[in-house]
Design goal:
The complex is a heterodimer of chains A (572) and B (241).
Chain A (H helix, E strand, L loop, with lengths): L7 H4 L3 H4 L2 H4 L9 H12 L2 E9 L5 E9 L2 E9 L18 E7 L4 H10 L12 E9 L1 H12 L6 H7 L1 E9 L9 H6 L8 H25 L9 H6 L1 E6 L6 H4 L1 H19 L6 H19 L6 H24 L7 H12 L2 H12 L3 H4 L20 H11 L1 H4 L11 E6 L5 E5 L14 H13 L7 H7 L4 H12 L16 H12 L2 E5 L5 E5 L24 H9 L2
Chain B lengths: L1 E2 L1 H14 L6 H14 L5 H9 L11 H5 L2 E3 L5 H18 L5 E9 L5 H9 L4 E7 L6 E6 L2 E6 L6 H5 L3 E8 L13 E3 L1 H14 L1 E2 L2 H11 L3 E2 L3 H6 L3
Parallel strand pairs in B: 2-3
Antiparallel strand pairs in B: 1-9, 3-7, 4-5, 4-7, 5-6, 6-8
Classes of the chains: A alpha+beta (572), B alpha+beta (241).
């Protein structure tokens, strides 16, 4: 296949391809994911971690402070661990007690700070924190694995990697709050000091430090239980533990509510892919790195388990497609010709599932850190583009026709087209999804019905004076203010809008969650329903003390058990 | 209690939504309120009053004839909500003027006029210059200046700021341009609040959050609660978070 020379800009995939919900719900971690970027930064800037306070009793209950020193200041994770009765352990947002609670404080806490935080952090949403703290979080134990690991260490041996792989984490977070919630530092203030500058960077550091805490915690309890024979976790075992997370609908509307930010994330990812596609050849080292990653993907996917039938079927197909591509790599020398990444992309688009296509995009950019890593600095929140109130309605119509043709084509007279409505629940003021014809509350619907609204606006605009300005139209019809501002933004930020009807019966909210979590860097998505998912974060990553520039990216597609690695080996 | 700016934004937005403020205007209103509170203007009581007495969406609508009048009469419509659309109209007029990029607007019956400042600052960052001349029977004249490099408030000696926060019945003469030389002469009155004070207060609030009275917060919460839907057995069973 002969590929023409095209620039990266020409190779950007169109929003009509990328911004479909099912494809967004097939995204995987990339080297631009926020966890990956954070670990690179920690290594490059030589951040240092010290355990400033570790006052835990024999059962691991008490207070800890982990201090992180960086070239531009310090921050501290303050954690409180407590006994929790099994019946009180609940991952849902309505829970009121947790095994451990945390806050990330800018600077270092003194004794008064710790007392203040002890009175509030364990209460989470019911407490108050201050502008000195920038993240609030909590976690529950995976009790079975936690006890097993403590027992193993106390008996003087390492936990089995297969047993670790079956769960993957000692604790799972059930919420990680930032940006001013419950009195926390506003994002502008968190960023003002220069310590944090990328999206969710403080939150990602918090989770990384919680992982450190969970590892120290099991070692501490084991040592208390059997001081004479307990051992510490071996490096391989330590790396095998990630942090689990349960994520539900609360996170889902974020991507719709922050279109400018979402555009930046997707644009950076697509630009990275396009830069690699534009390369006329792959150097031997880059080909070797990709083929090694492909082989590792086989092992990694073999350890990706879920009880969700849809995702399980996708994983099964993914395994077949990975084997098929591995075979083609061996037989055809797929990457040795000109424009190899374009040929690979074309092959994948023709033969493979979206799950596979997006995994390949993640793998393709892995060998090209020098080419793409700087894009991480383009993913923070942009200045909101100024609204153009002078725009004439005729131009606004044209804009809708250009950017929302997909919305105009939807048929909202079909009953399934408006099956769902999104609302905020009275219980914890969290977003929920209701069934319009069965549940009350549609009169208080959240603004996620973009496609339906666009259709209605378009009808009104076509009946209005085309020379009228938006400013005059909005004084007459103020209800369209939100949407018209959004349309103007989307016209300049083409990856800002998800091009699907989020009210439709076939809409899977879990795709929204997966998309956002992939940008965080999560792996092993395990949907527990169409509305919430479990994931693992930082699995396979080096721990803080061993983090160096040469291993900061060496945890992509982690493989835990020997059996999975053998599977990959058997495939050549 | 101290609140973060983000907390304040969200409670104001939801309160506005709960009071049936049209979508988008609620965002502007919340953003404007946070901007003002962060600069230590106590606008929340006036905001709650406007929202409580709001007649849903109809209070924010104008007819074409009303908009085309030389002076737009607000006739008891809520000034805090209409600040952003009026600034938009001013800007649209400036953009329409083919030769000079100069827009002007006259308004009668404006309440809580200080909301004009946050409505104009986003445009000012893009190079627009604004003058807002304000007075009513009890107070003024005031001159609110919004420039690319900051906001400044002038007034006659011994004039209080408070009428701008909760007063009504103001007449407004507003001007905007990209060419500052086209604006009317600078206010002859002394500075009531300088650019530096506007700026330093904003910096402090960003770092420390803002103090919001329990009463104001509860009033906003009461309005915000109108946006919430009670849980049902089905939603509890199927929902997650």
């Amino acid at each position: 296949m002969l590929m023409p020379a095209r620039t990266a800009t020409q190779l950007l995939r169109p929003p009509a391809t990328v911004m479909r919900l099912q494809r967004l719900g097939s995204f995987h971690q990339t080297r631009l994911s926020f966890m990956r970027c954070l670990l690179r930064r920690i290594a490059q800037e030589d951040w240092r971690l010290t355990r400033a306070l570790f006052e835990l009793d024999a059962d691991g209950y008490g207070t800890v402070v982990y201090r992180v020193a960086t070239p531009v200041g310090s921050c501290s994770l303050v954690g409180f661990s407590r006994q929790l009765d099994p019946e009180e352990r609940n991952d849902r947002v309505i829970a009121e007690k947790w095994d451990a609670t945390f806050t990330l404080l800018l600077g270092e806490p003194d004794a008064d700070d710790i007392e203040r935080l002890r009175a509030n952090v364990p209460l989470q949403e019911a407490g108050r924190v201050s502008a000195r703290e920038c993240v609030l979080s909590r976690a529950n134990k995976s009790v079975r694995l936690f006890e097993y690991v403590v027992d193993c260490l106390a008996q003087g041996h390492q936990p089995n990697l297969q047993d670790i792989a079956a769960v993957g984490y000692l604790m799972r977070t059930t919420a990680v709050y930032g940006n001013g919630k419950f009195g926390l530092s506003d994002l502008s203030n968190t960023f003002a000091g220069g310590l944090f500058r990328r999206p969710f960077e403080a939150e990602m550091l918090t989770v990384y430090l919680i992982r450190e805490f969970t590892l120290d915690l099991v070692e501490h309890i084991a040592a208390q239980r059997a001081p004479d024979q307990a051992v510490r976790l071996a490096v391989r075992q330590r790396r095998s533990f990630g942090i689990g997370n349960s994520t539900g609908l609360g996170m889902a509307p974020f991507l719709i509510a922050h279109p400018g930010l979402f555009h930046r994330w997707v644009y950076a990812r697509e630009t990275a892919i396009a830069r690699v596609l534009a390369l006329p050849a792959a150097e031997p080292a880059e080909r070797a790195a990709f083929i090694r990653l492909l082989k590792q993907a086989v092992s990694h996917v073999a350890e990706w388990h879920t009880g969700d039938s849809r995702q399980a079927a996708r994983i099964t197909r993914l395994q077949q497609e990975l084997r098929d591509l591995s075979r083609q790599m061996n037989e055809d020398g797929l990457l040795t010709g000109s424009y190899p990444w374009q040929r690979l992309q074309a092959l994948a688009a023709a033969q493979y599932s979206e799950e596979m296509q997006e995994l390949l995009h993640s793998l393709m950019i892995e060998p090209y850190g020098e080419l793409v890593d700087e894009l991480a600095d383009t993913m923070a929140d942009p200045e909101m583009p100024v609204f153009n109130p002078a725009l004439q309605l005729a131009a606004l119509c044209t804009l809708i026709e250009q950017h929302y043709d997909w919305a105009l084509a939807l048929d909202f007279t079909q009953p399934d087209a408006q099956h769902f409505f999104w609302y905020r629940s009275q219980e914890k003021e969290e977003p929920r999804l209701g069934e319009r014809h069965q549940e009350p509350g549609a009169d208080k619907e959240m603004r996620l019905d973009i496609a339906r609204e666009v259709q209605q606006l378009y009808q009104e605009l076509t009946a209005a004076d085309p020379t009228e300005s938006v400013a005059v139209f909005l004084l007459r019809q103020p209800r369209w203010r939100y949407l018209i501002r959004r349309l103007q933004l989307v016209a300049k930020h083409p990856y800002a809008e998800i091009r699907d009807n989020l009210l439709a019966a076939e809409c899977l909210a879990v795709d929204l969650l997966r998309c956002k979590l992939s940008f965080f860097g999560a792996v092993k998505f395990d949907p527990r329903s169409d509305r919430w998912t479990r994931i693992t974060m930082y699995q396979g990553a080096p721990c803080f003390a061993e983090l160096k520039s040469d291993n900061a990216d060496a945890w992509v597609l982690p493989v835990l058990s020997e059996d999975s690695a053998l599977l990959a080996d058997s495939m050549g | 209690m101290r609140r973060s700016l983000n907390e304040l934004y969200h409670i104001c937005q939801k309160a506005a939504e709960g009071a049936s403020v049209p979508a988008g205007l609620d965002n502007d209103l919340a953003q404007g309120s946070v901007w003002l509170v962060a600069r230590e203007f106590a606008v929340l009581d006036a905001l709650c009053n406007e929202l409580t007495h709001l007649n849903g969406r109809t209070d924010c609508c104008f007819s074409k004839a009303e908009i085309q009048c030389e002076t737009i009469a607000l006739a008891h419509r809520p000034g805090a909500l209409l600040a952003a659309p009026l600034v938009d109209l001013l800007l649209a007029r400036a953009s329409d003027s083919s030769d000079s990029s100069f827009g002007q607007l006259k308004v009668d019956g404006l309440s809580t006029p200080l909301y004009l400042a946050p409505a104009a600052v986003a445009y000012a960052r893009e190079g627009w210059h604004f003058r807002f001349a304000l007075e009513n029977a009890q107070a003024g004249p005031y001159s609110l200046v919004v420039e690319p490099d900051g906001v400044c408030l002038h007034a006659a000696a011994d004039t209080a700021i408070s009428p701008l926060l909760d007063g009504s019945g103001f007449t407004l003469s507003a001007y905007c341009t990209r060419e500052p030389g086209l604006l009317p002469a600078a206010s002859p009155h002394p500075v009531l609040m300088s650019r530096e004070v506007f700026h330093s207060r904003a910096v402090h609030s960003q770092a420390q959050g803002v103090e919001v009275s329990r009463i104001a917060w509860e009033r906003l919460q009461a309005l915000a609660r109108k946006t919430l839907v009670p849980a049902t057995a089905q939603s509890r069973e199927r929902g997650a978070g």
